[in-house]
Amino acid sequence: MSLIFIKRATLRDLPAIMAIINHAKTQLKAAGSPQWQDGYPDAAALKRDVDGQQCWLLVVDGQVAGTATMVIGDDPNYRNIEDGQWLNNQDPYATIHRIAIGAGFGGQHLSHYFFSNLISQAYHEGVHNFRMDTHVKNQQMQAIARSFGYKHRGTIYVDEQTSDASRLAFELNLD
């Protein structure tokens, strides 16, 4: 069994983070998804995540295997939702963004470890509500969200510079 854990990223991790993100962009393109094909996320966005202590790494046997950003607090992209509604608009929530697993780590269900650890971290900090979004063509992320009990709540629009800003919005509420 491998040693798998999460930790906050530092600026010295940016090259590894960018390599993982670039691998994910290639994978999304190969799957026919336009998500992340317009330059986003770029090094500046990821540096902001690291500086804000919102960027997390998945470490497997001492190697950085994945990256994700978890924001606890209001996400302006989630204020307006179409074709549905959020179940919980009262309590604080955590949003998991920009999650990706690096080359050489596929097929090990590491995204499940990563989500589980991120949810546990936020839960430990008193957050019991979670949101996420993904492109309609990102079937893999939709399957992961549903496997964790996230429910599709509607459509939101992201403020990224992209030709298709609509995203399926998901919510998970824990007691």
Walk me through this protein's architecture.
This protein is α+β, with helices and mostly antiparallel strands. The chain has a single domain (4-173), classed as Gcn5-related N-acetyltransferase (GNAT) (Aminopeptidase). Helix content is 29%, strand content 29%. It is built from four helices and seven strands, in the order E-H-H-E-E-E-H-E-H-E-E. A seven-stranded mixed sheet has the order 1-2-3-4-5-7-6. The longest helix is centred in the N-terminal third of the chain and has 17 residues, at 14-30. It is globular. The mean pLDDT is 94.
Write down the overall mean pLDDT.
Answer: 94
Termini Cα gap: 31 Å
Strand order of the largest sheet: 1-2-3-4-5-7-6
Uncertain stretches of 5 or more adjacent residues:
none
Taken from the alpha-carbon principal axes, the silhouette is: globular
> Largest sheet at a glance?
7 strands, mixed
CATH architecture: 3-Layer(aba) Sandwich
> Percentage of helical residues?
25-40%
- List the total number of helices: 4
Order of helices and strands: EHHEEEHEHEE
Domain tally: 1
**CATH level 1 name:** Alpha Beta
**% residues in beta strands:** 25-35%
Write down how many β-strands occur, each being a DSSP E stretch of 2 or more residues: 7
Report the radius of gyration as a whole number of Å: 15 Å
InterPro entries: Acyl_CoA_acyltransferase (IPR016181), GNAT_dom (IPR000182)
Domain N-acetyltransferase: 4-175
Organism: Levilactobacillus hammesii DSM 16381
Protein name: Acetyltransferase
